[in-house]
Specification:
Chains A, B: This is Chloride channel protein. The structure is a homodimer. In chain A, helix 5 runs parallel beside helix 7. In chain A, strands 5-7-8 form a 3-stranded mixed β-sheet. Chain A has a 3-stranded mixed β-sheet with strand order 10-11-12. By secondary structure, the first copy, chain A, is mainly alpha-helical.
């Protein structure tokens, strides 16, 4: 409980953003959502130590999600050249000052996190591709691949260094964490039917897991909103509940005599080992206690081990499965960094082993392999990934011959679960209210045109604009992009010149290159700025409006916006279908999309579409009658 | 030579498109190039039988590339609902009548080809992702995954069925073709240096391979252009050369006494086996003959086997490496279906084994594992893939512990080779003159705007157009898309209504829904057509202009184009940077991009950009001075 409180205090008081898995946040960031604090240095600090404390406290949580988030945070810190707030800056790390490069780097960080957590370098690449990233290009592929190759080499040398046991439990199992190669992977048609059954039930249980996680999260958010103290209290009560299960449930089960010829000591003497004596007489062990009172990794290894090595009672597996399933659900959402992979794998493995033990007389497939397939079915049912989970499981267990079965189970459970609800990470993103852009447009958008979604007053600047007008516009709105319109005498008729960003305007105003007359100063004024001044600043560290010090007489002067205007913004005609505009917006990863008029004789721009204008809440708020078409 | 002639005759006389690997063609198709005959049923037929004859004739060619092409052809045949020409049609397969779905299906087909060829289902998915597909979306990921899962299950049941040896050599090695698990995968820092050296040299040799393949292809194309007979003669001479090498070179090497305790018979009695007697005295074998006079798969298996199982003389490896390296180069490009994977793996494995045998006194790594790494370095050096090759090699050899080293070698050889030239498939696409759109825009495009690239006369239609005008436009141009412009009285001023496709115009004209007056008939006229009439036809099977039978009095009548006009085509302003237009075009997979004017008072459309307008040849042809900026 001390460890639990430590994790909770860190999380509640220092960085609330560090609570939970972190994968949904990374996913949202990579989709283009620049939410402050998701990848801040304080989040990184709390994520690392909170995760250590949380896992050590014995919660049913994993370290995988937090490691992905940690990897992304480190990548972000490197990408913005260190942290100015904490006085850690590196000059040579200034090459990532734009959205795309920074996204690439963070994708690599997420891949490295998975690669390190599961010791699965290829799985890490595929996870980053399938789950994390919203845009993909071939350069990114070999970059993530390079990152995880480095992770693999570093991991391997650490494991080599720790082989003699001088690093405690680290490195157990070598590069392959849960080797299941000892059991023969032969199966017949009858086993195939059993596996399909396993996949269907696994899919249903997985989607039920998602449903309940969602409900529990909504309940917790009410408690958590009341203040940090309530967060800590919630963590304490869940910690108490977990302890009750771990130390209480084993009492209700029978003791088992030690196996005659076991390689391991029985009963276990030290802290690690899978034959816990618990309340049993000498030479006996309690198999439920052996699952509860050990590390999660060891519990999974026990469940995956072949039936010849270890046998579990059916009652043990049933109690363990039910306990872990519900503990996993109630633990996610409390104020500690908590991964979802380990709870799901644990629950799935015990479910699979349970089915395998039941079917033992009928099936030739080993119960340990059933446990592996059960874990696959749960993972497919909750997270809805396919290739990446398949490769991660392959790299975890080193059993290539099971590949066809694992693929089958993943596909079945994903398909079954998809008919009920969304994947758990998508659900969490939605629940957090992050404006996530889906890859496809919603069907009702086909009935609207781009002009319909434009809302709010449009503020435009002239090519050479009065300083006062710019300051006023920056003050009264929170827009990040403003259209620039060329008017006579700079053009024959009003025409769209381009788009100017708030951050660039602030830099320009700070430089005070003003003129008394309305004249174009030409591109040489930007030469007085350094390129990095216009670079995208680190999270929340850019120039603020308050940093400007414009005098009253300067307010009446003019400034030429042409040098900092993006002269070729992407545009759509106002009559373009909103669905097509959404595809364009998402496909090219835009932040602003200009809507231009179709007929002449009107102002040269109708409005600007941003991410929020494509959100269902916004569109359906404007056109409530479309709800029925939804 | 009989088999070689059979393959060549099929290829030269029936389907010239079936020659070569097929992967570049599939890659080009998936990039959006609708070249006729790439995926035609005749190509499929020749690809299957030509590949069988070619491999059986003993050429240094693989079956992997042709299997990818075969998979894509089958997918295409299914996607267009069978072949009308050969009277094989399926009504229920009509759901793929648009570009995107058909592309998805063909991607799945390509993935299935790799999965079947290497028995590597996950490798197949990744190959399709990394090398074949130009667009990627998450639905495609699980679809290819599903396809390869089916392939894995089917393959496994065939292998199970053939276990007793009733299918000849099929199924040898089970699901894992070249198991290298017998050698221990322990390595030290010194081995790491050796591996880096291997990777660098492998990258150089790989790029040299590409360079020479390119030169040879250009030479052969001069010969092949002279007619099918010359193609066959070329095949015969290469076949003769291959035979000379296979039967001639082993004579120059020494015989080796049979190993004392071998599991295999020595010397080999039947046709398969790795201890060929050749010219040697009894109880001796010729190891070079054992590599040449066996299947490619068996040769690779021998090279990958651990040094304790089998030893090769350094002279044998050297001769075999040089022979295979050059035979592989001169064989690609002759008129037979010929994959590149097997020649590259063979050359790479013998190179790696050679290095491994040299370094044996210094390195703790087995020579068989060096052969694996050598194959990886050659594959990385020629094909420049990363994750997919890594997973394919993993699934081929079932050695997860070598993963970090394989990743390292692939990255090193790819990086080294990338500094010399392009990947072999990209090179072939370029040499064939296919208008392949790269994912990134060329640097010189940043200095141009979209309006600069528009060329040629623009032909537009009015919203309600005279039939004669349409027919005339269809006759004199080969454009596939025409802008439709609304004019008074249908709108106040001329405005862009949308884009109409040639194929849709032909269907509409064929339906003869004409009116005497210039009036809008409204959307109900399309109801008299069936949806599938407007569907994208199979390759080269759509309506032709000659199929229309328009009478003279009908020429003066009018037809309303609004119902078949795409009302929201993607547009760019004429002042948009050409680089950005290229990104838009490629990113969304367009075929036509409308360029609209920026200033009012001009026609509402400036021109249409198509794939060809973005090709370097076209742009640099218009603006030759940009050559220097290139």
């Amino acid at each position: 409980m001390v460890l639990a409180v430590a994790a909770a205090v860190l999380c509640a008081y220092i960085a609330p953003a560090a609570a939970g898995s972190g994968i949904p946040e990374v996913k949202a960031y990579l989709n283009g959502i620049d939410a402050h604090s998701i990848l801040a240095p304080s989040t990184l600090f709390v994520k690392i130590f909170g995760s250590i404390f949380g896992v050590a406290a014995g919660f049913v949580v994993g370290k995988e999600g937090p490691m992905v988030h940690t990897g992304a945070c480190i990548a972000n810190l490197l990408g913005q050249g260190g942290s100015r707030k904490y006085r850690l800056t590196w000059r040579w790390l200034r090459y990532f000052k734009n959205d795309r490069d920074r996204r690439d780097l963070i994708t690599c960080g997420a891949a490295a996190g998975v690669a390190a957590a599961f010791r699965a370098p290829v799985g890490g690449v595929l996870f980053a591709l399938e789950e994390a990233a919203s845009w993909w290009r071939s350069a990114l592929l070999w970059r993530t691949f390079f990152t995880t190759a480095v992770v693999a080499v570093v991991l391997r040398s650490f494991i080599e260094f720790c082989r003699s046991g001088r690093c405690g439990l680290f490195g157990q199992g070598g590069l392959i964490m849960f080797d299941v190669n000892s059991a023969p992977a032969a199966y017949s048609t009858r086993d195939l039917l059993a596996v399909i059954f396993l996949g269907v039930i696994g899919g249903i249980l997985g989607s039920l897991y998602n449903y309940m996680v969602d409900k529990v999260l909504r309940t917790y958010s009410i408690i958590n909103e009341r203040g940090p103290l309530f967060k800590v209290l919630l963590v304490i009560s869940i910690s108490f509940l977990t302890s009750c299960c771990s130390y209480g449930l084993p009492w209700i089960l029978q003791c088992i005599p030690c196996p005659a010829h076991s390689e391991e000591e029985c009963p276990t003497i030290g802290r690690s080992g899978s034959y816990k004596n618990f309340q049993c007489p000498p030479n006996h062990y309690n198999d439920l206690a052996s699952l509860f009172l050990t590390t999660n990794d060891d519990a999974i290894r026990s469940l995956f081990s072949s039936s010849s090595e270890k046998e579990f009672q059916i009652s043990t597996l049933l109690v363990f499965f039910v306990a872990i399933y519900f503990l996993g659900i109630v633990t996610y959402g409390i104020a500690i960094p908590s991964g979802l992979f380990i709870p799901v794998i644990l629950a799935g493995a015990s479910y699979g082993r349970l089915v395998g033990t039941f079917l033992d007389p009928l099936s030739g497939l080993d119960a340990g392999l059933f446990a592996l397939l059960g874990a696959a079915s749960f993972l497919g049912g909750t997270m809805r990934m396919t290739v990446s989970l398949c490769v991660i499981l392959l790299e975890l267990t080193n059993n290539l011959l099971m590949l066809p079965l694992v693929m089958l189970v993943l596909l079945i459970s994903k398909t079954v679960a998809d008919s009920f609800n969304k994947g758990v990470y998508d659900q969490i993103v939605e629940m957090k209210g992050l404006p996530y852009m889906e890859a496809h447009a919603e069907p009702y958008m086909r009935n609207l045109v781009a002009g319909d979604a434009v809302s709010g007053p449009l503020i435009t600047f002239s090519g050479v604009e009065k300083v006062g007008n710019i300051l006023c516009a920056l003050k009264i709105t929170r827009h990040n992009g403003f259209p620039v319109i060329n008017e006579p005498p700079f053009s024959e008729a009003p025409e769209l010149c381009g788009l100017v960003l708030r951050s660039h305007l602030l830099v320009l105003l700070k430089g005070k290159k003003f003129t008394k007359q309305r004249i174009m100063t030409g591109p040489e004024i930007v030469r007085s700025f350094k390129a990095h001044e216009f670079a995208k600043p680190g999270s929340g560290k850019g120039l603020k409006l308050e940093d400007l010090d414009i005098k009253d007489d300067e307010m009446e002067m003019f400034v030429d916006l042409h040098p900092i205007t993006n002269m070729s913004p992407y545009t759509v005609l106002e009559s373009t279908s909103l669905a097509k505009a959404a595809v364009l917006f998402r496909g090219l990863g835009l932040r602003h999309l200009c809507v231009v008029p179709k007929t002449p004789g009107r102002p040269p721009i109708v409005g600007i579409l941003t991410r929020h204008d494509f959100m269902p809440e916004h569109v359906l708020g404007l056109y409530p009658h479309l709800h029925s078409h939804k």
